[in-house]
Amino acid sequence: GLLSRLHTSTPTIRSLSSSRSFSQNIPSCLWKLGRLNHVAIAVPDLEKAQSLYKDVLGAQVSETVALPEHGVYTVFVELGNTKLELLHPLGEKSPIASFLQKNKTGGMHHICIEVDDINVAMTELKKKKIRILSEEPKIGAHGKPVIFLHPKDCHGVLVELEQA
């Protein structure tokens, strides 16, 4: 009858566990992505932002560190499983100053993901036509080599890769 026809014509839905693994669709790389290290937020008022996370939300907040090579002041907010990095302009040529001109109240600036081999990652990403915003890694806020990937090649997101 109608019930048996409806029952047999219903499409079968496969669960993810029974379908092919996602990793089978990803080409093998000579390097590996690691954990999310931090999400960076550009802020127009660093003291006010520090106060929000420390005094209002009760987070552990680092001291302000100047990174002249990157044109920023940084503050890290510890979240247990990751961190937030608060960024404020340092100097007239700061990339954060230009970001804040377009986004007056601040906002998410980039995400940072750890990699096990930043030099191999750079080589492979260049072969895959992903633009890297510097010729060589620079030393980042954690004292480790970092590179930034062009947001237009990463679906509108500025991605920082940091040597684990």
From TrEMBL:
Reaction(s) catalysed (UniProt annotation): (R)-methylmalonyl-CoA = (S)-methylmalonyl-CoA
Keyword annotations: Cobalt, Isomerase, Metal-binding
Gene Ontology BP terms: L-methylmalonyl-CoA metabolic process
CC terms in the record's Gene Ontology section: mitochondrion
Keyword match Oxidoreductase: no
Any matching Pfam family: Glyoxalase_4
Key word tRNA-binding present: no
Similarity field: Belongs to the methylmalonyl-CoA epimerase family.
Name by which UniProt lists this protein: Methylmalonyl-CoA epimerase, mitochondrial
Natural source organism: Pomatostomus ruficeps (Chestnut-crowned babbler)
Gene: Mcee
